[in-house]
Every structure is written in C-alpha cells, then in structure tokens.
Amino acid sequence: MRHVAQTTLLMLLAACAGERRTPGSDARARQAAPPLPRPVPPAEPASAPSDSAVWFTEQRTLDFTGDGVPDTVTLRALGRAADSLRITLTFRSGSEERWREEWASEYELVDPPPLADAAARDAFVRQKLERALASVEVEPFDSASYAAMADPVDSAVLRQPPRTQVSLSYGYETTLALAWDATTRKLRLLFGCC
C-alpha cells in the first residue's frame, strides 16, 4: 500500500508541476531531468516475527473440488508469541495449492475479552485459530448471499452457478465464499466481507 501511495504522489507531483508544454518539450525534459527516485518497497510489518517457529498447526480434510477425493485445509501460525504471528490458511488438492489466505495475529486480537497474562492470550488466540479452521465448510451455493454480497455481481455466476461454495471466517470479522473453478483448477473468490 505504501508503494502505491508513493507512486501516486510522485505521479501527482509530476502532473501538477504547472509547466507549460510545447511540442518537443517532453523529450527535452526527459533528457534534462534527473531520474525519479525508485519507490521503497514496503517493509514487513513491525509485528511480523523474524523467525519461522511453528506456534500452531492443524489440518482438516474435506472435498472442496467436488471430485470425491479428500482435499486438505491447513492452518499454520509462525512466530514466537500469540500477538505477533503470521497466519496462513492453505487449501491443497493433491500436491497443489489451490487457495491461500494470510493475516497477522493482531487481527485475532482486535476486541478480545480481558486477558490476564500471556498464557490467557495464548489460549485465546489458539481458540480463535481452531475456530477459523473449523469454519471452513463446503455447502450448497447460496445465490441470495452472492447477489447481496458480491461487488460486482457476475451475472454469469448466477446464470451458471457453482454447485457448491466453500465458506470460511477468521479474525475480527472476515467472511469469504469461494468456488471451485474446474477450468483453472483453483478456488476463486465469490465474495468477501469486512
């Protein structure tokens, strides 16, 4: 996001410089002007752990492709403390990754109950991660929810809806609905909220 903001600012400054242009002035300006500074890539969030210690990992099997073969959903949290984890929810079919969601554990701690100490925080985050993995469900496609939540609504999805959708929720209030795309052999986003 910072990279986008820097690039936008540089473009805005260049466009609003107020210089009158005449034919050929762009070429002269390019030759005379020093090169624009390269945007600095965004740094990793300060809360991101600097190691890859596995703090939590759990896996479920379910058939999200609809082919009758069990697929796996794995939730893994890396880091050393419950308040500074990198969390990944990965959907795999066969040996291929079909969808990945990533977030930081701060999102699990947006509005926690009073937590007396680190052990209570650990237990709370662990419970939230277990709940996130348990929320992954394959269910019949819900056209009413799709029409209400998708932005934009793809009329092709309503004309030829998927048989099922994969729903999941995590963090403070993120909810996603995914559908298996047999052409790309990946899950694709139907809609997400908050």
Q: Tell me the β content.
A: 25-35%
Low-confidence stretches: 1-49
Percent of residues in helices comes to: 25-40%
**Average pLDDT across residues?**
80
Question: Count of helical segments?
Answer: 5
Largest sheet: 4 strands, antiparallel
Which structural class best describes the helix and strand composition? Answer: alpha+beta
Total number of β-strand segments?
Answer: 8
- Number of discrete domains: 2
Kindly report the spatial arrangement of strands forming the biggest sheet: 1-2-3-4
In whole angstroms, the N-to-C terminal distance is: 18 Å
Question: Quick one: overall form?
Answer: globular
Please trace the helix and strand order, writing H or E for each element.
HHEEEEHEHHEEE
Rg calculated over all Cα atoms:
23 Å
Question: What are the key terms here?
Answer:
alpha+beta, 2 domains, four-stranded antiparallel sheet, 5 helices, 26% helix
Write the topology of this structure.
Elements: H1 2-15, H2 25-32, E1 54-62, E2 71-78, E3 86-93, E4 96-104, H3 118-134, E5 137-140, H4 143-149, H5 155-159, E6 164-170, E7 174-181, E8 186-193
Antiparallel strand pairs: 1-2, 2-3, 3-4, 5-6, 6-7, 7-8
Question: In words, what does this structure look like?
Answer:
The protein has helices spanning 2-15, 25-32, 118-134, 143-149, 155-159; strands at residues 54-62, 71-78, 86-93, 96-104, 137-140, 164-170, 174-181, 186-193. The chain has 194 residues and is an alpha+beta fold. It has two domains: 2-32, no CATH class; 54-193, no CATH class. The longest helix has 17 residues, at 118-134. The radius of gyration is 23 Å and the shape is globular. 18% of the residues are buried. The model is unreliable at 1-49 (pLDDT under 50).
